[in-house]
Amino acid sequence: MSETSYFKPWLGHWEWGIRIGLFIVLLTSLAQFGLFAMTQNYMVGYLGAEPQDISFALLLTYAGIASILPIQFRFGAYFQTRSYLIVNLALSILINLILVQNRDMTILYILRFC
Length: 114
Known about the structure:
Blueprint: H1 9-12, H2 15-38, H3 40-47, H4 51-78, H5 81-101, H6 105-113
Helix pairs in contact: 3-4, 4-6
């Protein structure tokens, strides 16, 4: 069986290290999604929106995830996995920083879809 080039050589031999690393990467996205789902009441008060508006923003997040999945397989063929992951995480951080300062529902909808 050939060794994978996605991980450092010292980590490639440690099966649980690979699992822990992948779990941590996935945990960042799941925590971001879970925190948004759990803080809907706070967002209603902060943005002055209706609860249905915040639920719609959560649905836009689902739609964004579902719409990017087919395209992601194409991106995987053109970009290296490491640089693609770093760019995605950096964009996620940037979008979250903009969302923290946002007070407009239209921008919230666009950024939650992204």
